[in-house]
Amino acid sequence: MNESRVLVVDDDADIRLLVRTLLERTGVLVHEAPNGRDGMREFHANRPDLVILDVSMPELDGWQMLERIRDMSDVPVLMLTARGDELERVRGLQSGADDYVVKPFGRQELVARVQALLRRASRGAPHEEQDTYADSYLTIDWGQRRVTVAEREIQLTPLEFRLLSTFVRNPRQVLSRDQLLELVWGDTFGVGGDQVKLYIGYLRRKLDPESPDAVPIETVRGFGYRYKAATD
Prior knowledge:
The chain is an alpha/beta fold. The chain has 8 helices and 11 strands. The chain is elongated.
């Protein structure tokens, strides 16, 4: 865990101090913020390896901050909450959190969960992500997470990148909304099919702002979507 950076965002100064003390004892560099807006500024400034995020905060709550983080990054997020009911835990995990801890929490448990998330993140991308994909329409460098269309580099969010990668890895195969939810979002529960339609629209406009309908991601009415890999 040495040299890992953790951002702690919680409006309770005592909680922030406790978490900082626990983690700094293990060699972690800790940044902190008292609310979601300051938390996002710290996130951009320090690019943490893990975020510990309180659910209930003023100005920008934990759910809103989590959504913004997930649009930009796959960094592990551990949610803190005073509520321990199942629906609250499910909401956190389905919204993109990696783990969930209920206050008051055991000190050793919190440190162990942080260590586990940092170890998981440090394993890095799978080997297949080092390959490059290319057809006559686009090129993807999975190692660099770089997408180019007609020599124009496309800036995608992590979720948009996962969505595009799923399509090109399954060329000409019709993928249902449920399949895309499972492959891209990680589950079919808690995220509606409208979310798939929304992000496919985002992706098409990113790939071709002038003619999004010309992007080779086809809607197969009544079934789902498919990527028709362009050939030379």
